[in-house]
Write a structure and sequence with these properties.
By secondary structure, the chain is an all-alpha fold. α2 packs parallel to α13, α6 crosses α17 and α7 packs across α16. The chain is built from 20 helices and no strands.
């Protein structure tokens, strides 16, 4: 029997697979944002391949947590903040939203720091680029044009693929890479522990699962179609962390090997020199700007939605400012404060990016505990509660973050 190739059938299948990618792909792309690239570059250039095992671990954790968020969005058709208020009351909701606000504010500041770092590599002052970027983000989002711009920013984020290509050009010792990916290592040193927290906090972020749940709920995905959403979430999380691992591999092979520790965007760009030579700074800048603008567009809006949802305030871009003053005020304040911090003279851009991710990880368990209680409530989830394996992995991750934070506090106190 002779097999025939049907190009139309192949194209239909390809279009179907591309069509299902949504929140998962966006979240994965935004995960490799400015603070993400800064954190992975810092980890690779300072500790070599030793952080690869952690990326393997947090990949599993991210798949589990993001799947829970997506499933809750499909089952309840509500956002995280709405469910937290209904289940736990106003006081716990207020505390949870404060943690979310602090974590997301730190990450938004880091996005504008990434914009500043990327444009300064191109010779443009942050005092010009950052205010213009803030106005652009605000205009695009508030005018409702974000869905169109989002596609452009996702394309710019594809520049992160250059790390994958660069790694194969460099030809690192793959046996050593595999060994470190499978062998956990740990150092009882505050700087190392901060780097661990930053790596966890830039991969599994409070904003990501809040955004994931809200996006899936807004899309109105039906339970019978949930398997496609789960595929989107899983594929996005895994792919995003594959790129993260290659950032660590590239910076380990090109910077750590020569004793260069990343503290600036110019140093981080050196990891791409084996691929594009003197054009490394331009390729690095494009990727940094694309990912930063993507995340800067999503983060303040998702945070404002969540906080207004938690307290029952009017929200949404379909309302004029006079009907939703808190919503628009919070959004403007979020972006304005982030810009002001980045424009403070002599603010170190790269350190502020990865330190913000350490704060993410420290605050993350507060929200994870509430989310896991909701995901295991039959009153909320019906028959779609977590499986035993999901609970073991998710609670284990929560406990790990709490333990690492405790070790950091103890180590810092001992070293005073």
């Amino acid at each position: 029997m002779k097999l025939q190739f049907d190009p139309r059938g192949w194209l239909r299948r390809l279009w179907f697979y591309l069509a299902i990618f949504g929140p998962g792909l966006i979240t994965a792309s935004a995960d490799n944002d400015a603070p993400g690239i800064a954190t992975y570059s810092m980890a690779g250039s300072t500790y070599g391949y030793r952080f690869l095992w952690l990326i393997v671990l947090v990949t599993v954790g991210e798949v589990v947590i993001q799947e829970i968020a997506a499933r809750m969005g499909v089952v309840t058709s509500k956002g995280t903040a709405d469910l937290v208020r209904e289940r736990f009351g106003v006081r716990i909701t207020a505390f949870a939203m404060l943690c979310l606000l602090l974590a997301n504010l730190g990450t938004t500041i880091a996005q504008f720091a990434g914009i500043a770092a990327g444009t300064e590599l191109l010779g443009v002052s942050r005092y010009i680029a950052v205010p213009l970027a803030a106005l652009l983000v605000g205009y695009v989002v508030l005018r409702g044009s974000y869905n169109y711009v989002e596609k452009v920013l996702l394309v710019l984020c594809l520049s992160a693929l250059s790390y994958v290509v660069s790694a194969f050009i460099i030809r690192p010792p793959w046996g050593e890479v595999l060994r470190y990916a499978l062998t956990p290592t740990f150092q009882n040193d505050p700087a190392y522990i901060l780097a661990v927290l930053a790596t966890i906090g830039t991969t599994i972020t409070p904003w990501a699962f809040v955004y994931m749940q809200a996006s899936v709920a807004d899309k109105g995905v039906e339970l019978k179609d949930y398997r496609y959403t789960r595929l989107d979430v899983t594929t996005g999380a895994v792919w995003g962390n594959v790129v993260s691992a290659f950032i660590v591999i590239c910076t380990s092979a090109t910077l750590y090997a020569y004793g260069v520790r990343v503290e600036t965007a110019e140093q981080a760009a050196l990891a791409l020199e084996p691929l594009v030579g003197s054009g490394a700074r331009y390729l690095f800048s494009v990727g940094l700007l694309g990912a930063s603008l993507l995340a800067a567009s999503v983060l303040p809006l998702s945070t404002t939605y969540a906080i207004c949802e938690a307290f029952g305030w009017e929200r949404g871009l379909d309302h004029p400012a006079r009907e939703a003053p808190v919503f628009y005020g919070l959004y403007a304040g979020f972006i304005g404060l982030s810009v002001l911090v980045v424009l403070i003279p002599a603010v170190p851009l790269f350190p502020i990016m990865w330190l913000s991710q350490s704060l993410n990880a420290i605050l993350l368990p507060v929200l994870l505990v509430l989310v896991l209680k909701l995901a295991n409530s039959r009153r909320v989830m019906g028959e779609w509660t977590n499986s035993r394996l999901q609970n073991v992995l998710a609670w284990g991750l929560t406990g790990l973050i709490g333990m690492v934070t405790l070790v950091l506090l103890i180590s810092s106190f001992i070293n005073l």
